[in-house]
UniProtKB/TrEMBL annotation:
Cellular compartments annotated: Cytoplasm
InterPro entries linked: Cytidylate_kin, Cytidylate_kinase_dom, P-loop_NTPase
Listed GO biological process terms: pyrimidine nucleotide metabolic process
Coiled-coil regions, chain positions: none
Organism: Methylosinus sporium
Name of the protein: Cytidylate kinase
Substrates-to-products reaction catalysed: dCMP + ATP = dCDP + ADP; CMP + ATP = CDP + ADP
Entry keyword set: ATP-binding, Cytoplasm, Kinase, Nucleotide-binding, Transferase
Pfam families tied to this protein: Cytidylate_kin
Amino acid sequence: MPERGLVIAIDGPAASGKGTLARRLAAHFGLPHLDTGLLYRATACALLDDGRPLDDIRAAVEAARGLALCDFDEARLRSRELGEASSVVAAIPQVRAALIEMQRSFASRSEGAVLDGRDIGTVICPDAVVKIFVTASAEKRAQRRALELASRGERVDYAHILEDIRRRDERDSGRSSAPLKIADDATRLDTTDLDIEEAFAAACAIVQEKAALAG
């Protein structure tokens, strides 16, 4: 078991498998989990519901500040539409600034926490004992996203999904505020050729190694 207060920061591009790994690690080690991407999806959802453009900075900041972690409709937020919309909203520096304290507050829980997103190890929890950067090829990630959407009964177009993945990668990595990048002290975990059990085993090994080194 990890020591009290252990924070596990998991970053990576869209559909890399970071969310699945984060949830399983949280359950395995008995830690609370926050998928920070849902914050940006919920912000985008609020804008769309109000008929506001995604690049309306004032409205986006108001929506972000009004979020409550207990109010999320995850089934809706995980749609492909909101995945693309969230990437637009997440590129707004003022929105990211509005959500920083909510994320850091979650990470500061006495029992520790697992957070996954795009800037956890670099911005939100730079002092986290465990930092894992989960990645996979764009083609593999598109395949996984297609299977995920199909399992929810959504219409699937692999070519369109791959295009979305590449566009989001470019936007997430190129934005001026908290761009997607691997922290200097993070461990890279490429899941392209790993199934979920293999990826989970590798992630557990990383957590145990880093926690042991931290004493």
